[in-house]
Amino acid sequence: MLGRFVGYNVAASLLDVAPLPYRQINYVTCLDLGNWGAVFTEGWEQKVTHVRGSMANDITFFRRFEHDITAGLKTITLRDSSESHFQSGQRLRVGRYEDDVYFCTIEVISVTPVLLDDLDDEHARQENMTLAELKQVIGDIYPGLNALYAMTTQKNAKKVPVRVRNELKFRELTVKTKTLIASTFYRLVLTSPQLADFSSQGFDDHIKVFFPAENGEFTPPQVTSEGIVWGDGARPQSRDYTPLDFDAERCELTLDFYLHDGGVASSWAKEAQPGDTLFIGGPRGSLVTPTDYHWQLYVTDESGLPAVRRRLQSLSQEVQVEVLVNCRHTDSLEYLSEFPAVKVRALTHGEIAEYLRHAEIPADDYYIWVVGEGKQAKALGDYLLEARGLDADLVRAVAYWHDKGGHGRHEQSHPESRARHRRERLFDANDIRLLILHLLANGPAHGYELIKSIEGLAKGEYVPSPGIIYPNLTLMEEMGFITVGEGQSGKKSFTLTTEGKASLEQQQSDLEAVTSRLATLGVLGDNRRLPEVQRAIHNFKTALHAKLGSTELSRETLYKIIDTLDQAAKDIERS
């Protein structure tokens, strides 16, 4: 019997997850075998000062502990002591060391003996090997080892992403290769010995990429206990990018740059050649997201496609995945062409919002990731949490860029839409509901049609977001002003009720004021788009910026400029 004894199955409930402070890393080196972890009994920090190449009563090493600790400890565990370490109700700390140390707390539910003959193909599949290979590897790693543990979390343990911290470092990299991908991205492979300890464990991690100044010089900041301290020189321009792939053996990092006009990163990538250098910082932290959610949805524009690509590379074919891309060029969809089993759709922002209204999202075991322009991503995320009532731990909405002429996490800008979004404050919720009543008086419509109709009234100068339209539609239905049915396209269609018509008639004067403001915006847009007006505004801005940016500008000249601006404003008002 002893010759056939292997160990115990330990079922455990996940309680919490946290990274280990860096000052404790020396407590465990995990035998230098890589991809190992350890179970720590209570008080091990005081009893063990250094473990290297040996087993200890307070530490049990196990093999193939995945990054995804929140999904459960579903891998084979190796140990060489008795079941006394594991008792029902006992709480243990479980950790893994490779590039960082991670911990979670588990509570033992049951301990069941396992015999060598009990090992089956499921155990082997978890180890990515055949059953014969699994039994062989036990003897190869530790010839005298005769105890094996398979540890799993409780089935109902909640799977949530876990944030871990990395040591912040700045590294100088050299361009090794450059390849055009799907006509919309440049893929750059960067290399450096400084990447030896690089770590990126979240599919949407971001590193800070610093672009060389004209003189090619860059002095990285100092990382201190007080934070990042930059020197006296000018800080270089930087953008955030997702590490697409990292080859630790070759010390090679792959980044994909989306190509568009006017961006510092895109411009640099277009001109970059093998041998060019640049600096990166980070990633400072990673959000480690379980990969085995049964239903997963990814909503993005071009800026988030590299993160989506990295995520799809890590998912099994067993999960149900959909990708919605708000892209200006359908060529961008070719970027994901190597994943034919994944449903990838090109939709406008309004169509994405409409899709989310009708999507059949499971009650549990789902994950939704939304990125793009800040306000749009927030509106979609808020809708999923507030209107759909989804779990905040399972919905991630992140601004990858902003339309304010700058950038969010990633580079991309649409400056023409900046003023349009500013004007949203001209219309409050009552104005929006009144416009909806007015439009539905002409016949039924679905949400996206209402958005486009309001945009048409303002000649493109104002576009209400789905985060404004759909909550008001829900409220109007509750007020009895509209009914909801299914249109010919399968989308929800909204129809005005008798109560809605009565409310509209009572607010005709208010409606005239709202439509007048929309018409004024339309006239403003028409006039501002005249080539002569654009030329005059451009010349004015250029001259003003040149003067105000001059280091030789005297007080007398400054006051003359102010007087000129004031007089010009008066002349325009009187004209």
TrEMBL record:
Residues 168-290 form the FAD-binding FR-type domain. Gene3D superfamilies: Hypothetical protein, Nucleotide-binding domain of ferredoxin-NADP reductase (FNR) module, Translation factors, Winged helix-like DNA-binding domain superfamily/Winged helix DNA-binding domain. GO terms for molecular function: hydrolase activity; oxidoreductase activity. It holds the Pfam family PadR. This is NADPH-dependent ferric-chelate reductase. Keywords: Hydrolase. It comes from Beauveria bassiana D1-5. SUPFAM superfamilies: PUA domain-like, Riboflavin synthase domain-like, Winged helix' DNA-binding domain. InterPro entries: AC4CH, ASCH_domain, FAD-bd_FR_type, FNR_nucleotide-bd, PUA-like_sf, Riboflavin_synthase-like_b-brl, SIP_FAD-bd, SIP_fam. PANTHER family: FERRIC REDUCTASE, NADPH-DEPENDENT, NADPH-DEPENDENT FERRIC-CHELATE REDUCTASE.
